[in-house]
Amino acid sequence: MRSVITIEDIRVGEFEQVSEKLVESYSQYQASYNRKEDWLEYAESLRDSVHNPFVDRILVARDGEEILGSLQLFTNSETAYNLPNLAIFSPIIRMLGVSPSARGKGVAQALLRESISYAREKGADHIYLHSTDLMADAIRLYEWLGFKRDTSKEFNKLNFVVKCFRYDMQSSNTQF
């Protein structure tokens, strides 16, 4: 039987489960941190992120009742990163995570497509996300969906260049 991926807002009572799936999905990058303390701090920030009062929406991908992945949407760079100087006044995707057992099934793509549709419904001209070179597979997916690099909205964190990718609603060939 083929699974059907649905995308919905996070439900009451799912915050802890979503936060643990998020940490699980990012754990493959643990060895990339120079100090174990930095990874532990990052993992804790992932757990706490689902309780961020500035998040606009948390989308959850499911197969039936099983949570496969999630992402968070913010309204601008100040609410997303506490970086108003980035001057992003369009929706921002953060904390996209897919359970390792659900990878390769279109989960991230479904979450991203729903995010783009949501931004379009809000009348946004763009939607942004940030990533690092560690996430090469994810970056390929973003580019395949039509996201373009925007170096003017990048920043550094720890020993990483946090690259910016922008999806332009009007000029993109990808229709959702």
Description:
Helix 1 runs antiparallel to helix 2. Strands 1, 2, 3, 4, 5, 6, 7 and 8 form an 8-stranded mixed β-sheet that branches. By secondary structure, the protein is an alpha+beta fold. Strand 4, helix 4 and strand 5 form a beta-alpha-beta unit. The protein has a single domain, classed as Gcn5-related N-acetyltransferase (GNAT) (Aminopeptidase, 3-Layer(aba) Sandwich).
Examine the coordinates and then state which fold CATH places here, giving the name of the CATH topology. Answer: Aminopeptidase
Poorly predicted runs are none
Number of strands: 8
Task: Determine the structural class based on helices, strands and strand pairing.
Answer: alpha+beta
Helix content: 25-40%
Distinct helical segment count: 5
Please trace the helix and strand order, writing H or E for each element: EHHEEHEHEHEEE
For the record, give the distance between the C-alpha atoms at the N and C termini, rounded to a whole number: 26 Å
| The level-1 CATH class | Alpha Beta
When the domains are counted, the total is 1
Rg (C-alpha, Å): 15 Å
Percentage of residues in DSSP E strands: 25-35%
Q: Outline the biggest β-sheet.
A: 8 strands, mixed
What's the average pLDDT?
93
Architecture per CATH nomenclature, i.e. the level-2 architecture: 3-Layer(aba) Sandwich
Annotate the secondary structure layout.
Elements: E1 5-9, H1 15-26, H2 36-49, E2 57-63, E3 66-74, H3 77-81, E4 92-98, H4 107-121, E5 126-131, H5 136-145, E6 148-149, E7 155-157, E8 160-168
Helix pairs in contact: 1-2
